[in-house]
Amino acid sequence: MPANRNVLAFVMAGGEGSRLHPLTAERCKPAVPFNGKHRIVDFVLSNLVNSEIYSIYLLVQYKSQSLIEHVRQSWTMARFIPQHFITVVPPQMRRGPEWFQGTADAVFQNIHLIESIQPDIVAVFGADHIYRMDVRQMIEFHVKTGAQASVATLPVPLHECDQFGIVEIDENHRITQFREKPKDAKPMPGSSTHALASMGNYIFNADVLLEQLHKMHESGDSDFGKHILPSMVTSHKLVAYDFATNVIPGTEPYEEPYYWRDVGTIDSYFQAHFDTLGAMPKFRMTNRHWPIYASPDQAESAQIENGVINRSIVGSGSIVDGATLDHAMLRRSVLVEPGAKLEHCIIMERSRIGRGAQVRRCIIDQDNDIPPGERIGFDAEQDASRFQVTPSGIVVVPAGHFPRRASGNSPYLAPPEPGTVGQPRMEVLA
């Protein structure tokens, strides 16, 4: 990063994530679990911290308590360095009795934070994606090109352009047009099948951002992608940063180049998990040169008693006893009983898969106790009558849908605490 460059980051973490329902029924999209022990928000926060950007405000809104608790427990910065902080900021209603109306309005309602810190550069990043990125390289490009605002971009197929902000550029990377989710996007230079899409990550000169936020407030606009950036195309130097040029140390040759996934739907969220499995995954979660940080883990080690396991992750505190796991991902404190079979499944915290149960192509949210002999993912009509099923056939079992059974003589399950009988929660003991 250029010397003495003062950077402040805003992470837009207020998304409802309606397309991820029912996983977002009780949590916001950035708080949705990912892989064995992470949450989606951990990727953007890790990228910023690894890029030596330590002044971070996390703007939250929708069902944010789970996210607030996660950040409090997992992202405590240095106590004695005032410039090192990750602070969660709910709507303060400082400018009237209303919630954030859009991404730009969320920053505008916290404009006093920019004015107080007086940074040179403001990074505005989304919290909804799975990727690694050295933000310093984007800032260096921003400064080198003399840009007033920069947009991180990558190619997407033309048939997906109605899901993204699409930019057109000249030979010097200057953005000549910015359109939000167009249905008639033009191909990017050098390709007949792809266009250049915004990743939702922006770098602004602080003075330019303040000017644009005040102008936006006067006009009643509220969003970066829909309003501010398109309006800046003709009045400011707006450039596109090519994400494919971003170099991450420790990336293995077998990994997919410039891996980035928008996990905004159940299908994309499900597939991204399996991109991380195997000896040579598309996206390797472990990279000591660029770690994706997770919450401190106090649970006991996982236990595996017999069974067959293929390309699977077993989270800490989980027990697999004589079961079959094929492309399965278990988070913390999951019990899989003898004879159960999991195939292409994601099982979240404190769930039990009963003896002989069979589950495939399924996401089971936390605190579920799947009965012995249950079959999920085999009868499309029956699944659709009980659960949400995506167009590609992924079944989603909401949190607590199957209430806790009595532990009986199980050596694994603790008896319920007083006052919790009948509540869909479970503790797995090592």
Automatic annotation (TrEMBL):
<dbReference type="InterPro" id="IPR029044">
    <property type="entry name" value="Nucleotide-diphossugar_trans"/>
</dbReference>
<feature type="binding site">
    <location>
        <position position="198"/>
    </location>
    <ligand>
        <name>alpha-D-glucose 1-phosphate</name>
    </ligand>
</feature>
<feature type="domain" description="Glucose-1-phosphate adenylyltransferase/Bifunctional protein GlmU-like C-terminal hexapeptide">
    <location>
        <begin position="303"/>
        <end position="397"/>
    </location>
</feature>
<dbReference type="InterPro" id="IPR011831">
    <property type="entry name" value="ADP-Glc_PPase"/>
</dbReference>
<dbReference type="InterPro" id="IPR005836">
    <property type="entry name" value="ADP_Glu_pyroP_CS"/>
</dbReference>
<keyword id="KW-0321">Glycogen metabolism</keyword>
<keyword id="KW-0547">Nucleotide-binding</keyword>
<keyword id="KW-0067">ATP-binding</keyword>
<feature type="domain" description="Nucleotidyl transferase">
    <location>
        <begin position="9"/>
        <end position="275"/>
    </location>
</feature>
<dbReference type="InterPro" id="IPR005835">
    <property type="entry name" value="NTP_transferase_dom"/>
</dbReference>
<dbReference type="InterPro" id="IPR023049">
    <property type="entry name" value="GlgC_bac"/>
</dbReference>
<dbReference type="GO" id="GO:0008878">
    <property type="term" value="F:glucose-1-phosphate adenylyltransferase activity"/>
</dbReference>
<protein>
    <recommendedName>
        <fullName>Glucose-1-phosphate adenylyltransferase</fullName>
        <ecNumber>2.7.7.27</ecNumber>
    </recommendedName>
</protein>
<dbReference type="Pfam" id="PF24894">
    <property type="entry name" value="Hexapep_GlmU"/>
</dbReference>
<keyword id="KW-0119">Carbohydrate metabolism</keyword>
<dbReference type="GO" id="GO:0005524">
    <property type="term" value="F:ATP binding"/>
</dbReference>
<feature type="site" description="Could play a key role in the communication between the regulatory and the substrate sites">
    <location>
        <position position="99"/>
    </location>
</feature>
<keyword id="KW-0320">Glycogen biosynthesis</keyword>
<feature type="site" description="Could play a key role in the communication between the regulatory and the substrate sites">
    <location>
        <position position="61"/>
    </location>
</feature>
<comment type="similarity">
    <text>Belongs to the bacterial/plant glucose-1-phosphate adenylyltransferase family.</text>
</comment>
<feature type="binding site">
    <location>
        <begin position="180"/>
        <end position="181"/>
    </location>
    <ligand>
        <name>alpha-D-glucose 1-phosphate</name>
    </ligand>
</feature>
<dbReference type="GO" id="GO:0005978">
    <property type="term" value="P:glycogen biosynthetic process"/>
</dbReference>
<keyword id="KW-0548">Nucleotidyltransferase</keyword>
<dbReference type="Pfam" id="PF00483">
    <property type="entry name" value="NTP_transferase"/>
</dbReference>
<keyword id="KW-0808">Transferase</keyword>
<feature type="region of interest" description="Disordered">
    <location>
        <begin position="406"/>
        <end position="430"/>
    </location>
</feature>
<comment type="function">
    <text>Involved in the biosynthesis of ADP-glucose, a building block required for the elongation reactions to produce glycogen. Catalyzes the reaction between ATP and alpha-D-glucose 1-phosphate (G1P) to produce pyrophosphate and ADP-Glc.</text>
</comment>
<feature type="binding site">
    <location>
        <position position="165"/>
    </location>
    <ligand>
        <name>alpha-D-glucose 1-phosphate</name>
    </ligand>
</feature>
<comment type="pathway">
    <text>Glycan biosynthesis; glycogen biosynthesis.</text>
</comment>
<dbReference type="InterPro" id="IPR056818">
    <property type="entry name" value="GlmU/GlgC-like_hexapep"/>
</dbReference>
<comment type="subunit">
    <text>Homotetramer.</text>
</comment>
<dbReference type="InterPro" id="IPR011004">
    <property type="entry name" value="Trimer_LpxA-like_sf"/>
</dbReference>
